[in-house]
Amino acid sequence: MDANDREIGKILEDSMLMAMLRRFLSNLIPQKFHLSDNEGKELATFRQHFNPFIFRLTVTIHEGCPLSPLLVLAAGVLLVAIEGRQK
Q1: Residue 87, pLDDT above cutoff 70
Q2: Cα(38)–Cα(40) distance, integer angstroms
Q3: CA-to-CA distance for 71 and 60, rounded, in angstroms?
Q4: 11 with 33: CB under 8 angstroms?
Q5: How far is the C-alpha of 68 from the C-alpha of 74, rounded, in Å?
């Protein structure tokens, strides 16, 4: 959200089918999320790496992303916190 409470982007998981497989069958399938703006332009990618001991997430900020890198990293931290609570 921006300063006027308008949505400036959203984070979506890579595929509904893969999300269902991860939730109901196995947590061994790594997750991938995409941050896009209101026009659908991809601004960043969050990719989980398979590691049974620690949660690793790679954040890739794409060229021309108008958002602050700190905001994108904060979104990644939020994703890690949410995923940690679901397991």
Answers
A1: no
A2: 5
A3: 13
A4: yes
A5: 10
